[in-house]
């Protein structure tokens, strides 16, 4: 390492749905960048989280869950995002869950054959009660391919998170930093707000609503009182879904607004006035084209 050398690279976080990829991204970066829920396919875009330490910059890419059965156009779009992230990355962080190796995991590892640098991360080890089983499982996984490391973690409790950053740092190529050191994501503020609102909808309604609910932020301005004014349009497929989100006397959409506003105020560190409307757009799941989280303004979300 020489005087002013810097090291930078892209790391794709891949795995089947619900293994904890988004939670891991947030823990690795130390900021809430990607929304989380227990519902499959909560993440629909590739979300970048940027971790800076000294002369090193790791650009993590949270990808949608690996799709085995592609029932809708959106599944093909998400799978395309995953494959593009793998192709463009310096290193792949392959995430699995507990002591459960699945058919989907096997499919993913087949698609990583051409990637030289793959780090295997086993999440949710806090749920493994019999720790004696973990050693034999690690030996089983080690035979799958030549990993640069196998790290058991708990993304929820931050157990062994630092180990991941330390391992990856060893493999970053000597490159100029891609982002300013203060940047923590390349996502636009408008996209971040739309995702936060969508997260609250998914978390509060679970199986009652499909993951294809869309949130469009139509107004995002700061008024003369330094208050962030946000107008959001929630798109659903039918009248039944609209009634579910509104709730009795508007109580449900009010709760969503309160929870979303609290998170938005924490992120943007200012008072927020959030107003939401709901509109029906039939067959939204079939016609959905996932919007890009980028506005190519990398100074918009800084620490």
UniProtKB/TrEMBL annotation:
Pfam families: KH_2, MMR_HSR1. Gene3D superfamilies: 3.30.300.20, P-loop containing nucleotide triphosphate hydrolases. The keyword Zinc does not apply. One of its GO terms (biological process) is ribosomal small subunit assembly. GO terms for cellular component: cytosol; plasma membrane. InterPro entries: G_ERA_dom, GTP-bd, GTPase_Era-like, KH_dom-like_a/b, KH_dom_type_2, KH_sf_prok-type, P-loop_NTPase, Small_GTP-bd. Monomer. This is GTPase Era. The lineage of its organism: Bacteria, Pseudomonadati, Pseudomonadota, Gammaproteobacteria, Enterobacterales. The gene is era.
């Amino acid at each position: 390492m020489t005087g002013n050398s810097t090291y930078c690279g892209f790391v794709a976080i891949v795995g089947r749905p619900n293994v904890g990829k988004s939670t891991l991204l947030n823990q690795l970066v130390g900021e809430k960048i990607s929304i989380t829920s227990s519902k499959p396919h909560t993440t629909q875009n590739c979300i970048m989280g940027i971790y800076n330490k000294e002369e090193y910059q790791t650009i993590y890419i949270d990808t949608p869950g690996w799709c085995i059965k592609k029932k809708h156009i959106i599944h093909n779009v998400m799978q395309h995002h995953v494959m593009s992230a793998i192709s463009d990355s310096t290193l792949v962080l392959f995430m699995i869950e507990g002591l459960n190796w699945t058919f989907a995991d096997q499919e993913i590892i087949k698609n990583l054959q051409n990637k030289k640098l793959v780090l295997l991360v086993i999440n949710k080890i806090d749920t493994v009660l019999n720790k004696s089983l973990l050693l034999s499982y690690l030996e089983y996984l080690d035979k799958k391919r030549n990993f640069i490391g196998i790290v058991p973690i708990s993304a929820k409790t931050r157990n062994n998170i630092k180990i991941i950053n330390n391992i990856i740092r060893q493999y970053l190529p000597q490159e100029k930093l891609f982002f300013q050191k203060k940047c923590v994501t390349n996502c636009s503020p408008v996209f971040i707000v739309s995702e936060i609102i969508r997260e609250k909808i998914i978390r509060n309604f679970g199986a009652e609503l499909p993951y294809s609910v869309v949130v469009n932020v139509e107004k995002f301005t700061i008024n003369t009182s330094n208050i962030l004014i946000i107008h959001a349009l929630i798109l659903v497929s039918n009248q039944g879904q609209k009634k579910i989100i509104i709730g009795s006397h508007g109580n449900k959409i009010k709760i969503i607004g309160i929870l979303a506003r609290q998170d938005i105020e924490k992120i943007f560190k200012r008072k927020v006035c959030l107003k939401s409307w709901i509109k029906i757009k039939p067959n939204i799941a079939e016609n959905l084209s996932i919007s890009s989280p980028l506005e190519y303004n990398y100074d918009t979300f800084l620490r």
